[in-house]
Amino acid sequence: MKRKWIILIIFLFSGMSSSEIKAQGMIVKMMDGAENHVTLNTIEKLNFSESDMVVVYKSGSNTNYDLSNIRKLYFDASISVHEINALNNQALLVYPNPAGNSISVKGIPEKAGMISIYQMDGQTVMTEVVTSTEAIIDITRLPGGLYLLNALGRTTKFIKQ
């Protein structure tokens, strides 16, 4: 059974060189429900032994996964933004998310002066002047979709329904 699993994984990775797959990340879901996200452009190579999968990173470090503890391995084609932990007061917090007609934004840097909203292709679709570390922004004119919000280098994402 393990050999079939290994063959399936190798088959999936061998298809990564195909131009049809545009995965940005690999997700390893463990038997205990934990998920480990790995950005594909950080991986140097994958090694498989009888019982382990070893992810070797370009930095030289590696991560070992016991094959018997892996529930699912899959690829995510979505593009993500690394968000700073909100607990360290360095992050933008947008709610509700998904949003309807407006969003509340907290954690705006004091000297930001402006918030920019971008479509996922990088096109600026909206800018708002801000004078405080919190703001409510009317987004009724935006069509539904995924957006990036930036204020003085702090970026987060939100969904408009």
Radius of gyration: 20 Å
The domain tally reads 2
**Any low-confidence stretches, pLDDT <50, length ≥5?**
15-23, 79-87
Q: Strand order, main sheet: write it out.
A: 10-9-12-13
What's the total helix number? 1
Number of beta-strand segments = 13
CATH class of the largest domain: Mainly Beta
Task: Give a short synopsis of this structure.
The protein is built from 1 helix and 13 strands. It has 161 residues and is mainly beta.
What would you note in describing this structure?
The chain has 161 residues and is mainly β. 8% of the residues lie in helices and 46% in strands. The chain folds into 2 domains: 2-76, SH3 type barrels (Roll); 86-160, Immunoglobulin-like, CATH 2.60.40.3080. The strands form 4 sheets. The chain has a 4-stranded antiparallel beta sheet with strand order 10-9-12-13, with no helix packed on it. The protein is elongated, with a radius of gyration of 20 Å.
